[in-house]
User: Which sequence fits this backbone?
């Protein structure tokens, strides 16, 4: 019976570390892709610019336009 418990614990720990690894790898891949897009001056988001984390530094026409609108300098 004790052997069964140990296997179960080992399986749980393995699954926990596997899950953490998958989450970490996914987060790293997303960060790497975002960094590559920023370097290439490409948009990092399909959403509106208002909530974009790099709006202040964005050099894309859509981002610069959104900044002007938000600052009230439209036209
Ligand atoms: S500020 Fe707008 S255009 Fe610039 S990266 Fe963000 S979403 Fe794309």
Assistant:
């Amino acid at each position: 019976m004790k052997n069964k418990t140990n296997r179960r614990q080992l399986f749980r720990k393995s699954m926990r570390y596997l899950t953490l690894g998958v989450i970490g790898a996914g987060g790293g891949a997303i960060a790497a892709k975002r960094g590559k897009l920023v370097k290439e001056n490409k948009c990092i988001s399909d959403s509106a610019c208002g909530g974009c984390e790099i709006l202040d530094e964005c050099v894309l026409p859509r981002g610069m336009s959104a900044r002007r609108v938000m600052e009230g300098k439209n036209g």
Summary: The chain has two domains: 1-42, 45-75. The pocket of iron/sulfur cluster is lined by residues 43-45, 49, 52, 54-55, 58, 60, 62-63, 66 (CB under 6 Å). Residues 1-42 form one domain. The helical segments are 2-39, 61-71.
